[in-house]
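Hi R.,

Here are the chain sequences for the assembly we discussed:
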Amino acid sequence: MEQDEVAVRSHDILVSSGTARASEFETLTTIGAAVRLALNLRGMPPVEYGLLREVAVHRLGLQPGEVRPALELLAEAEMVDLAGDNSTTKTILPNIPYFEDLYRKVGEAGASTQGLNEHEQLTLAVMHRLGQGPTSRNELTKLGAEDRALNRILQIGSDAGFVLPKRARGHDIYISPAYFAEDPQALADLAALAGSSRLGRILSLIKKNQGYPLSIIEERRDLGGTNLDDKDILLIKALAGEGFVPPPSVRTSHSGENHFMFGPRPGNTRLAPHEGQIFNNALALAAAVRQGQFLAREYKINYPAALVRALLRDGHLGSNSEAIEQYRIVAQHGIGRLVPTTGDRARLELIQTPDNIRAAKLAVDLLAGPTDKPTPDEELVLAMRKGEEYVEPLLARKSLSECKIVNADEEAKHAVDDFLLRRGCA
Amino acid sequence: MLKDRMQKAALYRHFRAQGWMAQLEVPVVTEGGVARKALPVTDIDVLGIRPSPELRWRYVIGDCKTKKKESPVNRVLWASGLMDAFGASSGIVILRRENTTPIERDHKLFADERRILLLAEEEFTEYDKAIVYPGGSSEFPETIDLIEYLRDSVAEAFPRLREHLRWLLSGAWSNTDHSGLLRNALGRAREVRGEIDPRRDDHLAIILENAAVFAVPFATLVGTIFRRHVKPADREDLDEAARIIIWGGREQYDFYNRMRSELVQAKGSKSQEPLSLPEWDRFLELLRSVLEVPTRAFQCPQVLRVASLAVLSEQRELLNTIPDSTLLHVAMRIATYVARAAGYPAETSERLKSVFMTRIGDIVESSSKRLSPGAEQSPSRGSTAIGDEPLATHPMKSDDPQMTLPTISRSANKS
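And here is the predicted structure of the full complex:
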C-alpha cells in the first residue's frame, strides 16, 4: 500500500472510531491523529500547545495522550516546528504544505519512525478493500490473513465503528460507514446478490462520473467511457430503486422526469456531521447542471464544473428559456432563486449563505471529479486563526474526555490475567 | 546642530519608526549602461521603502544636506529628478540653514507640488514628533552604528565577504527591478556559501540581511500574485505565474529556459527540469502560505533587519519590539528558505529558527495567559496595519518596561 493511502486510511479509521481505541493500534493511531491535526493546522499562525491540545481532544476527537506523538510525527515530517523549554513543547509553528502531498509525507514519516504491526497492516488492507464497496467475508479472506487475525480486526472494526457487519441472503457482508454512509442493509443485499466485486466496480464508476442521468446510462450502456453489460445496468437501476435514498430527479416538458445517479453519500471522514443536508443540496444542483449537459432542449452545457464556478463567482447564471424547469429543484432546495427576465426566460441566482456556498463548492467537486481526501473543519480553522477566545465557544468542553477501549482479544485477556496472577510468586 | 551623518541617522530612525524599511547611501546606477563596471551616478542619502495598502512598495527619497548655502529650490529639483530616476513616490529634503533662516513658504509649496517635503533642520524634530507621535523617533532602538559595523568592520574581518556585504547594504537597494533582485539575492547568497559559518553571530546577521534583501522583491511577488489570483488552489497555476513573473515575462522566461537547457545538455546532463529557483518546491510552499497573510510580507524585510541587528549586538530583546507571532513566523520561514536555497551548512536553519522561536513562544504564551482570569495585561499582539503604525512599538507609548529598550550600540572591538 502506498504511503499516502496508509495516512488517509489511518485518518478514516481514527475518525470513524470516535472515542473508541483498540489496544492493537499504535502507529496507525498516531498517523491518523497526525493527519487530523495537519488538515486543521494548514495556514494557521503559531499556536500554544495547550490550546491545540484542547481543540484536538474536544473538537477533533483525539485522546489527550495522542496529541504529542502526533505533533512529533509532524515535526519529523517537517510540517511543524516545536518551540519550548528543554523537552516541554509550548508552541506549535505550523508549516503544513499546500501542494506537496501531505498524506505521503505523514505516511513516510510514520513508516520511518515506527513500522506498522501485523494487525495494523491487516486493518489498512481491510479498509482499502471496503473503500471500494461492501465486501463479503469470502472476499476478505482472499487478503491472505489468518482467520483468527481477520476475525479480530473485524471485531475491532465493529466495536470501534469503522466496520459495519451485515447479514444478507445468508452471507456476511461488511461495509465501512467511512465511505458509505447511507442504506447499508440495501447495499449489503446488493453485494450478496450481485457479488461484491461487481458492486465495487459499479460504485467506483458512479463515483468517478457523478450525476449521470440513468436514462442516458441505460440508452448508451456506457458510463464515463466504460461499457456496461446487462447485469451492470440492472445493478445501477437497483441502486436507484427500493431500499435506497431516491436519486435527485429533474422534470422537464421536453425530456420528462430523469433521475441522476450519484455515489453513496460519503461518511464522516469526508463530511463534517452537520454537512449532510448541504451535501444533498449539492446533489440537487449537480443534477440540474447534468440535466443541461445531457438532456438540454437547446442550451447544452459543455463545461458543467466551470458553470457552477461561474455561479459562485458571479452570484448568478445567464438567463435562458430552459432555466425554470432545469433549476426548479435548485430553488426547491433553497440554494438559489429563479428570477424571470424577459418572456419565458429566467436566470438562476445563488442565495448567498455560507451553507449554499459550501453546497455549490461541493457540487463543483462532484462535477469535476472525485477527491477522496479528508477535509478540514472550516469553522474550527477560522476560529483558531482568530484566537483562543473564538475557539472557546466551539469546544463542547467536558471535564474529562471519554475513551472507550475496545474489548481485548480473549486470549490476550487470559495472558494478562496469568501475568497478574503470577505477581508476588517466588 | 546635526552633522551629515547625524541627519542621516535621524532620518533613518524616522523611517524605521514608521514601520518602513530603510537603507543608507544607496547608489543610483544607470540602467543599461555601457561601462564594464557601472559607476554610481549619485547616491541617495536615506532610501525609505514603505508598504502601501495595495500591497506594493513605495520608495521615498531622503536627502540630507549640511552645506549652509544650499539652495532649497535647487535641492528640491535635484530630489525631484532623483525621484523620477528611481521611480520614487515622494521625497524628503532636510537642509541646514544659515543662521537658522527659515525656508521660504513658496519654496515649500514648490516642493510640495512635487511631492517633496522640504524641512529645515530645526523643523525636523517637531515634524518627527508629530508623525511619530508623541515622542518622535529619537529613542527608536535601532541605530546606524550596527549597520556601519556590519558594512565596515565585519567586511574587514572577512575580506571574501566584503563585496557581498557592500552589495547587501548598498548596491542591492538600487535595483528597482524586483524580479531581477529576487534572483540576484539568491544568486549572491549562493556565491558566498563557502564562506558562511552559521556558528558565528556576525555571519548569521549577514544571512538575515540577505534574507531582508530577498524579502523586498518577494513581497512584490506576493502582492502581484495576490492581486491576480488571490490564493491559487492549483499548484500549476501558482507555479506558472511565479516563474513568469520572476523571469520578467513569458518571452524572457522561455529564452532563459531554452538557454539553460542547451547549456546543461552541452555539459552532459540529461536533466529535463525547467528553469526555476533553487529549492523550488519549498519556494512555492512558502509563497502559497504567505498568500494567506499577504500584508505580512510587506513587513518581513523590517523584521529581518531587526533580527539581524539583534543577533549582531547579542541583544535578542530587540525582537521584543515585534508583537506579532504570525509576522515573526513568516520572517523566519523566509530566512530559512534563503539559507537552504543558498546551500548554507545544514545547521543554519536551526540557528536561524532559534533567533525567532523564543520570541514567538513568548507572544503565544502571553496571549494565552491574557485570556485566563486574573491574568496581567500585556502588550497587544494585534497585527500592524501597513504604513499606519510603527512596527517597533515606541517606548514612550507604554509604561510597560518590556517596551523600553536601551539604545543598542556595538563595541568597536567586537570580533
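Residues 119-198 of chain A form a domain with the Arc Repressor Mutant, subunit A fold (CATH 1.10.10.10). The longest strand of chain A covers residues 88-94.

Let me know if anything looks off.

Best,
T.
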